[in-house]
Amino acid sequence: MTVAVGIDKLGFYTPGLYLDMTDLAHARGAEPNKYLIGIGQSKQAVIPPTQDVVTMAANAAEQILTPATKAEISMVLFGTESGIDNSKATAVYLAHLLGLPSNTRAVEIKQACYGATAGLQLAADFVRARPTAKVLVIGADIARYGLRSAGEVTQGGGAVAMLVTANPRILALDAISSYHTADVMDFWRPTYRTEALVDGKYSTNVYLDFFQQVWDDYQAQTHRTIADFSAFVFHLPFTKMGRKGLRQILPTATSAQQATLTAAFEASQADNREVGNLYTGSLYLSLLSLLRHGNLQGGERLGLFSYGSGAEGEFFSGTVQPTFQQGFDEDFLANQLADRQAVSVAEYEEIYRAQLPNDSRDVQLAVGQETAPYYLAGRQHEQRQYRQQ
């Protein structure tokens, strides 16, 4: 008998500050609806210097791991394009912060926004071969394009943590998926830059082309059609992008199916609209948003599209489990987003410039107001100083 494998638990963390997109539009001399409707974003997470991808990942993972579960983790796979070291993996820092066993495999995975999906698929294959294993998969990033840049409105940040096990509570993954890779320069960040370079229109076109290719190939492999799905979940660097992807395939559905899929998409983009771009975590925040706000039932099949510029895309699927609401803490997640504080554009710009400098200087960060369980206190002797409350 084949054992179901997939996502057992989901956690999400973003810092307690945000920038209202209407305020940003006014400051940049733009019509607010250009951001609110044209891009599809309402708020953008603002990342203080005391949070980086390691601490955000720890804050997300802490929501879903008990002391007993930590002792059972076999592997940590950390997808990010905001790594803090060209050699040492963010997963190693994370495993230490969380107090995971020393016989844990810990690896960082990089391919733009696709890294967490690579981690999820590797984790699923690992558990299929070892049904008692538990794997922690992370998607954590800070999206930075620069003040007053064309990509400024699609910044954001946060972390999603997934526990991958046999007999999962949330989503059982199908073994078949479709993937596509091509060497294209739609988005990249050379090692000498702290901010990404992007050809926005070109990247959107590549995203849509890759989605069509992997969706067509998936259908050819499985003989499933759009009628077999209750929802499609997209990587959302901004919410309008996924909407365009869904609209590519909606004409193949009946009118009733179109209405169901459109409503599900609206549910899946609700949290992303309030947070902004998570890069590797974006698809999985979309999934979490659908689980929280959608009208799902156990046994329904979801389709998921992952995309990482440069470029790699994958379409895969899974079945919602009847116990899916046991896999995340709804009250915590709702309160986390509701309790954030707005910052002015001037405060956002100051925080943006205050990130840990890209040099060897010792730095002591102001940590007196930090409320997250894990945070960055500064840097000494070229080593980041992580702390736990």
Automatic annotation (TrEMBL):
The enzyme's E.C. designation:
2.3.3.10
User: Locate the Hydroxymethylglutaryl-coenzyme A synthase N-terminal domain: which residues?
Assistant: 4-166
Q: Which domain of life is it from?
A: Bacteria
Q: Which UniProt keywords apply?
A: Acyltransferase, Transferase
Q: Which PANTHER family match?
A: 3-HYDROXY-3-METHYLGLUTARYL COENZYME A SYNTHASE (PTHR43323), HYDROXYMETHYLGLUTARYL-COA SYNTHASE (PTHR43323:SF2)
Principal EC category: transferase
What family is it from?
Answer: Belongs to the thiolase-like superfamily. HMG-CoA synthase family.
Segments forming domain Hydroxymethylglutaryl-coenzyme A synthase C-terminal: 174-258, 266-352
NCBIfam families according to UniProt: HMG-CoA-S_prok
What species was this sequence derived from? Levilactobacillus lanxiensis
GO molecular function (one): hydroxymethylglutaryl-CoA synthase activity
Q: What is this protein called?
A: Hydroxymethylglutaryl-CoA synthase
